[in-house]
Amino acid sequence: MSERLPTLITLHQKSRVLEIAFAEGRSFRLPYEYLRVYSPSAEVKGHGPGQEVLQTGKRNVEIRSLEPVGSYAVQPVFSDGHSTGIYSWDYLYELGENQEKLWAQYLAKLAEAGASRD
Question: 40: which strand partners?
Fold first, then answer.
């Protein structure tokens, strides 16, 4: 578990990317939009399988602040008012490892719904 501890977390406001490096050597650059649409909050994930809510219009979302949650997570405050997702180190690592696949799934769901990132 200790290898999933971040050694660096940086918010890059111009490029809207959260950069996170982990003790075991991996690092990821996670766009704010990606973090927002995959928020672990009940508002996005629902309260069970099949209750997920497709997030649209998040292309230009920003992270206004990043609050620590104990020693295991952070809670971003997004520019659209969303602030209820608690991102554990394990969840951020998972988002980084699976970024390509998850982003493709999100784009496919948007297309299927006839929705937009804008």
Answer: none
Q: Which residues does 26 contact at the CB level (< 8 Å), separation at least 6?
A: 93, 96, 97
- The torsion of the CA quartet 76, 5, 43, 106, rounded to 10 degrees, works out to 100
| Partner residues linked to 8 by β-bridges | 21
- Determine the topology of domain 2-113 in CATH: NE0471 N-terminal domain-like (3.30.2020)
Distance of CA 16 to the CA centre of its chain: 12
Summarised one tens digit per residue, pLDDT across range 31-43 is 999 999 999 999 9
**Cα-to-chain-centroid distance, residue 92:** 7
Instruction: Find out whether 61 and 36 touch, Cβ atoms under 8 Å.
Output: yes
- Helix boundaries (H) for 2-114: 32-37, 42-45, 89-97, 99-113
pLDDT tens per residue across span 68-117? 999 999 999 999 999 999 999 999 999 999 999 999 999 999 999 999 99
